[in-house]
Structure prediction request, 894 residues.
Amino acid sequence: MPETTAAPTAARTPAHSRGVRPGRGLPPFTGAGEPAALTTLQVLRLLDSGPRGLTEEQAEERLLRYGENVVPARRPPSWPRRFVGSLRDPFTAVLLCLGVVSAAVASWGTACVIMVLVVVSCALRSGGEHQAGRSMAALRELVPTTASVQRRTADDAPPRVREIPVDQLVVGDVVRLGAGDLVPADVRLLRASGLTVHQAALTGESVPVPKNALDAPAGGGAEPPEPPHLCFQGSSVASGSGTALVIATGPDTRFAAAYGGPARRRGETAFDRSVHGIAWTLIRFMLLTPPLVLMANAALRGRGLETLPFAVAVAVGLTPEMLPVIVTAALARGASALARTSGVIVKRLPALHDLGAVDVLCLDKTGTLTQDRPVVERSLDARGDNAPDVLEWAAVNSFWTVELAELPVPDTLDEAILDAAGERGADPFAYDGIAALPFDPSHRLATAVVRRPGRHTTHTLVVKGAVEDVLDRCGSVAVDGADAALDAAHRERLLGLAAEEAAGGLRLLAVARAERPARLGPYSDKDLRGLTFLGFVALRDALAPTATDALEDLARRGVAVKILTGDHPGTAARACRDLGLDPGEVLTAGRLGDLRGPQLAAAVARATVVARCTAQDKARIVSALRAGGRITGFLGDGVNDLPALRAADVGICPRGAVTVAREGADVVLAEKDLTAIDRAITAGRRSSGTIAGYLRITLSSNLGNVIAMLAAGLLLPFLPMLPAQVLVQNLCFDAAQLAFAFDRPGPAAERKPAVLRTRTFLRFITAFGLLNAAADIATFGVLAFASHTTARAGDPAVFHAGWFTENLLTQAMVMLLLRTGRHAAERRATGPVHLAAAALAVIGILLPLSPLGPPLDMSAPPALYYALLAAVLTLYGLALSTVRTHHPALSAAA
Ligand SMILES: Nc1ncnc2c1ncn2[C@@H]1O[C@H](COP(=O)(O)OP(=O)(O)OP(=O)(O)O)[C@@H](O)[C@H]1O
Prediction:
């Protein structure tokens, strides 16, 4: 990759024709527009800036005039808009349709009650979302994003580089970009050194694109879609560094134009598959119900369209209207509690559900499982003997690759090498730095070009990097002060020596060198051929203190762990063993070749460690695991982890991760505490358990009621429940079920990944729905018998009242008995659910007897009915408990 510097050249006529936006003063550069064709000097002049950047005063004045560098992230909608927006929920939409159908057939009572249901659920939902949105925004602010800006305190003061929040950047600012940074605005490069950027968010391109400074971009003709001298907000620096001029901020960036908000597109996640999958299956049932009820009543009872309100009420009876409210409330409560108690920030609400569902977690090694504070242990020559000069050459490389970078931030390996060489008195200043090819994770090499004292006609290329990659570029090897040809046998011996060192847990860098005639032009990867291998630098990186505990916790929770690392397979395997994991057969990404999808997932499923992964390999493996049906989390902290963080169901990073990883992750862990993963997964499982508990209870009792209503509708000469009764009963259920938003499921929900699989789930609700219907039908018998003994035999009002009471009592029982866990001890209800169930039971008994009874066409059943009902309910309770405890396949839906 060439090192490029744009020097101002003669000005050309500005081709900028979109004009200066009135009132803003500065041109609304969108990067993709004509200003791309201006020379660097013209752009600097146009933006009233200079290569040394703005003064603080200028920047402040621009910030006040033009506003913050924030993409207009779809301003928080007003209350009415939010309310109308919640009508888009599919259940609410179906309810609305049913309400319209009822109104069309002049069934005003049904239509009114449906409207009450819609309004109540929309109000609760929009209120809940508003609350959740606010707490999410507050949580996201705890993970700020900054940019390195070069500013001056006064006109004549020297420029200083400092970190400022990204939203404080203004057009005309000069920023520094380094590996792992987000491009904070649309920028034009002034200088670049080995710069490559990921711009997948904008172009979908998965590999990093090289960028360089061009002083006079090709004018005329069509501008290339991706001008190499422009970087756009939303992209991230994969390698190298650069200095750039901000040409567009906030709403004027290309990113804002493309998306109008910082929304990130990702494929279907575990949350979409489970909760949405179940919701859509139900909606299909709901839509099928009215025609089926109408047809059955017409065929068996000769009833016509007059049964439509009843058919509609039956469909409404199936709806879990409170689902969106419970989902939002359960996740938002879980996320806030997690931030409060463990410092873990969940940036996307459904990610908490996905965390609970994760059954395989991929981790990178360096910086996640290790401390990323390497210390040089020794340096060796090609024979494996101590060789201080190898460390000195490595230090020359580290010093000049850092020194010649636009943003001189040494990585931890470079820091360790410089510290160790410094202690031994090495002086990299003895050489003159000519050029540098900074570390590039896809080539796994860093190169410094230096001139040795007194040798003006020769340039020395000093290369350090991963052993295999350096050896691939070597033609000879230094042995006892002389160069010998590097044949295959020699290469194998060197790889063996490296493997021995790595097996001791050391990180290894190979060092090589080449002499070339001095030249003026830039250097690139093509120049790295025929190098002379010098030796290795071996470094020790201690394990993170909490890593062993964290891995144990994950195993206990039924989460498989895979380590995907760019490091040597031996080093990774040793780290794995030291952490108490059996590495099994260690794979290298190279051996996986071009495998994709299920074949790749199958290959990876057997391995615990995949070494020598590039960023793309990590993402490929994560995607393959997901395609193979695993719910996959990825935990990483480096620039080479970004694609995998985005590819996973849930991307997690520690607080100290590079900026792009923090931006790309869904969950940010507290500083250096990996055991927080366990707490985060537990919180996710609790929230999912709450949602599953709600769905399980609501749907099995709703289904039971619907089956019973259909049966009774066909058996009885009158409607078993009037539409208004069905809907009042629904309102009571909904109100009671709100208690689930405050529920905490039992420990069983925390033991294994919480996945709602549609098939298992439907099996569960069918089984318990049938049980519920059986209790209902037994109640019909009991009612018929009890009323037979009185003068009011065959009175529909008595039947309605008796059934209403039974329905609410069985619902209350289900709330207590079907929460979570197969064992009685785990089913103890917490406060809110307990109270709600009790309230439901009281209403069920008293409402038909109260003054509200007659208007709802209910009148008190005889005392005998209550005694018989108690027997039916006891049997029902026993049956519920027995099936729940002894049928493991049913409890798998938990
Ligand atoms: N600054 C550097 N200069 C030269 N080579 C480096 C440098 N940093 C890393 N390498 C080499 O490149 C390899 C891959 O590095 P990369 O950053 O992709 O992964 P890693 O840090 O080893 O592991 P992980 O993926 O677990 O974070 C390293 O193992 C090392 O051999």
In short: The two ends are 54 Å apart (CA to CA). The pocket of adenosine-5'-triphosphate is lined by residues 364-367, 411, 413-414, 439, 441, 444, 446, 464-466, 509, 565-567, 638, 640 (CB under 6 Å). Residues 375-540 form a domain with the Calcium-transporting ATPase, cytoplasmic domain N fold (CATH 3.40.1110.10). The mean pLDDT is 81.
